[in-house]
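Q: My hope is that you can spare some time for a protein that puzzles me. Underneath my words sits a plain record pairing an amino acid chain with its backbone structure tokens. Those tokens are not coordinates but codes from a learned vocabulary of shapes. Thank you; the sequence and its tokens follow:
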Amino acid sequence: MKNREKVVFALFLAALTVTACGLGAGRDTDSGEMAVPEVSSEDLLVDSLQYLLQDEEEDTTQPAGENGSAADTAQPAEDTEESGLAADADAAEDTAQPAEDTEDGGSAVDAVIYYADAGSQDLSRETAAVEELTAETLLESLAQHNIVSLDTKVLSFEQTTEEDGEVLHLDLSNAFSEYLETMSDEAEAIIVSALADTFLDNYGADAIRITVEGEALATDRAEYGDALLWCTPQDLLSEQAEQAEQ
């Protein structure tokens, strides 16, 4: 519509110019006034057509800008799609993470732990989940029931087959004997029997020899040079009494 109006205007201008030039040609131009260059109607018509063509080129190039705007508008959609894919990937990783934690938790094994029964000289037992059945993990579980001190360490541990059957050799740090020295007779008997029974039960052994820094376990009340069989606190109290009489 805009181009039609320009065409009408240009044709009107050309017609008006032709008429003016015809009238001017019949007049005397020797009036002494400043001379105005004469412009032919053909030149005006050419100028008008160039003006129209220039406007049409501008109108033709305009949609390219609109298309460019559309392309710019479409760009965030691609970004949004990529962001959505990245978010989905992150969500998948977060969802998969608990599965690894579940597998780690499922690798635990059960260990039988003996400890003091409150208010009596009998032993209680419980099943504790440990990452792996080792002398260290058994000692950690016993420490939770105050059977050994937290600073007691395993120096060495091995299982051998002897004439009397399967025998365990457990060598502990000096912190264990120092811990026993602070206990009463009954508490010492509970600690030694709970320690021995815990290792014998979990390893299916017949006897255990407990040493401290490579030496046989000994306190002011008793010596434990021989390998210990399955025992109760009452059994060890009886041995303490026998050694005291000697």
About this structure: The chain is about 55% helix and 20% strand.
